UniProtKB/TrEMBL annotation:
InterPro entries per the UniProt record, alphabetical: HPT_dom_sf, Sig_transdc_His_kin_Hpt_dom
UniProt protein name: HPt domain-containing protein
Transmembrane segments: none
Modified residues (Phosphohistidine): H58
Pfam families listed in its UniProt record: Hpt
Record domain HPt: where: 19-115
Alphabetic keyword roster: Phosphoprotein, Two-component regulatory system
Highest taxon above the source species: Bacteria
Length: 194
């Protein structure tokens, strides 16, 4: 058993380069829910709500097993079987599971951070002129360009303006988004488009 099966995680992450940002966001959400799930598990165990505890463990096992968190999947399955067979659940078993859960989350977070750094370093500079023309042409590729360059947009436009800009793009209000972007075009481009 391994805390994280890197081969499986890489296979999941490389299934679709196009949808990788959404996949990373989904994994980040899964990781962000960990402490809430741990509180729920502790609450169910304390109240002897065995069926709810079993369902929560099953849900965790499914999500994390897909990402290669083998130790966590194994620990979860062991607890699930104990609950199914009406065996007593010790505090030690529960504490061990929670420890593995937290360690798996940390390991996955590190993998995601490495991947995001790799994506960031491999990313070309955002071509705002191209983005502007895609917006003016109401071309849906503008959505992908904005999705994949959020950090660069925040640096260029400031966070608040970038958030507003992204909202317009994802609401398909390309004209409003193009207006926000226009002042950031190089001067020679700005004069052509006024």
């Amino acid at each position: 058993m391994a805390l994280i099966n890197h081969t499986r995680l890489q296979a999941v992450l490389s299934m679709s380069q196009q949808h990788q940002p959404q996949l990373i966001r989904m994994i980040s959400t899964l990781l962000a829910d960990a402490e809430k799930n741990i509180s729920q598990i502790q609450s169910y165990a304390k109240a002897q709500q065995r069926q709810e505890l079993q369902q929560t463990l099953h849900k965790i096992r499914g999500g994390y097993a897909t990402l290669g968190a083998e130790d966590l999947a194994h620990a979860s399955k062991t607890l699930e079987l104990s609950l199914e067979q009406q065996l007593p659940l010790s505090e030690t078993d529960l504490a061990e599971f929670i420890s593995i859960y937290r360690q798996s989350c940390v390991a996955l977070q590190q993998e995601i951070a490495k991947l995001q750094a790799d994506i960031g370093s491999g990313q070309a500079e955002l071509d705002i002129i191209q983005l502007y023309y895609l917006l003016r042409q109401h071309n849906m590729q503008a959505c992908d360009l904005v999705e994949n360059n959020q950090e660069q947009l925040k640096q260029l436009l400031t966070k608040a303006v970038a958030d507003s800009f992204s909202q317009h793009v994802f609401a398909l209000n390309f004209s409003a988004a193009a207006e926000i972007l226009q002042p950031f075009l190089p001067p020679e481009q700005r004069s052509i488009n006024t």
